[in-house]
Every structure is written in C-alpha cells, then in structure tokens.
Amino acid sequence: MDRVALKPLRRFAVIFLAGAIIATVSSCTREERKKEEQKHLESMMTILVQVQKNLGRIRQKEAVVVRLSSDVEGRKPQSAEQIGKEINSNIRFIDSTLSASRNLVTTLEKENHESQYRISALDRMTGQLKGELDKKSLEVGAMKGEIARLNRSIARLTNTVDVMDEVIDDQEAQMVKAYYISGTIDQLVAKGILLPPAPFSRFLGAQPVLAADFDIRPFRMVDITETRDIYFDKPVSRLHIITPHTKGSYTLVGGKTSALLLIRNEAEFWKKSRCLIIVVE
C-alpha cells in the first residue's frame, strides 16, 4: 500500500484517538463533579438534621417546663426552690439550643449559597427553618414572662430575692466546664500544648504528641451543657482532632472555607477528655 493510501487511515486514527481521550476526560470530570455534589448534599443534610433534632429537644424541654411549673406554687418552699432550679436549667438549655440552631441555619444558608452545587430546595427549607425558629423564640419569650411570675412566687416562698437566678456554687460550675483550642503544630508547640516534633517526623507521618502537662489558659472555656456546635474558619480537610473523644458522639461538617463540630452527645463527647485539641494543617 503506498503512502497516499495510508494518509486517510492516519487521519482517521488520530481523530479516533482524540475522540476517545476527550470522552475519557469528560467521563472522569462528570464522575468527580457527581462526587463533589454528593458531598455537598450530605454536608447540608447533616446540618439540616441537626437543626431538626435541636427543635425536637426544645419542644421536649418546653414540655418539661410546663409540667414543672404547673403546680410549683402549691409546693413546700424547699421543693419549690428545687423545681425553680430545674425550670431555670431547662430555660437555659432552650436559649442555648435556639442560638446554636440559628448559627447552624446561617451556616447552611451561607455554604449553600456559595457552593457551585447550590440546591434551591435547601433555600426554601432554610427560610422555613428561620420562620420556625422565630416562632419558637416568641413562644419562649412568652414562657419566660410566665416563669418571671413564678419566680416572684418562689422568692416569696423561700425568702430569697431570686431563686431562679441563684448562683451555682464552684463545685457545680467545675462539673460543666470544658476547654478547646485549635492551631498549627508550631503554634501549639509554642504554647506548650504539644511536644516539639522529632526531626523528619512530619515526613514520616508521625502523629503530634501531647505534652504531659500544659497550661489551659490559652484554651477557650465552654459549658458542656450548652455547647452543641463549635465553628472553625478552616475547611474540614485541614482539621484533625488529636484528643480522645467517643466515636459517634460528634461529626465534623462544612465546606471549602469553614467547618462545624456538631456534638451529638455532650456527656459521651467530653467523657474521655475535658480538653479538645485540634491541629490545623
């Protein structure tokens, strides 16, 4: 076969190979896009489910407050005082959970708006959640008004100025305190929280090592009964929890610029360590 006859065949082979390469690249791109879209959806749904759980918790606590306050004025002073403390504790829980839920909805809205895989249905759901949280805030406000009236009654029974706002003693306060900090390895080493890494340890994949004793003053203090989410202005992929915390008691979610640590079970999460240390890559 002469050279003239081979030229059309060569052109056909080149065109065929180019087409196959384009099809392969396009297929890979579609697969990667599908995975990113699925990841975005799962992150958004995790936050959405958490808000719904928070609303369920708020409704449960509201029912408890209603039950406790129904006959508090007919109780003995000591019993009424204890009920007052329980009501106050439940009100604090409701307030903190409402605040946490608003933060979650704000994060949900922001992440969805900024994502290239924005889901319009989530925008509508976010609006509905905002409306539900606003309505719940009004209900809680009305409940606080009723609690204030009960508070005056309990104060008369117990001869105190305000039983509902009685200061918790130091021992009780210590029981609900926890601490957290985040930073790069170098930052945490400088604060004496991590031991200086050995030469080449980072290249060998060695894990950061906690100092035997460190000062908790650089940490942020939280109340474990009121803290159900912690915000970080770094993506999930750059955050690594190095302190021991029970699996299943928390989830890290977020997008490309920020992340949320959702604490699902406060008692389990803080049981192994009252200090949360997160290394930022």
From TrEMBL:
Matching Pfam families: BLOC1_2
Top-level lineage group: Bacteria
Protein name: Uncharacterized protein
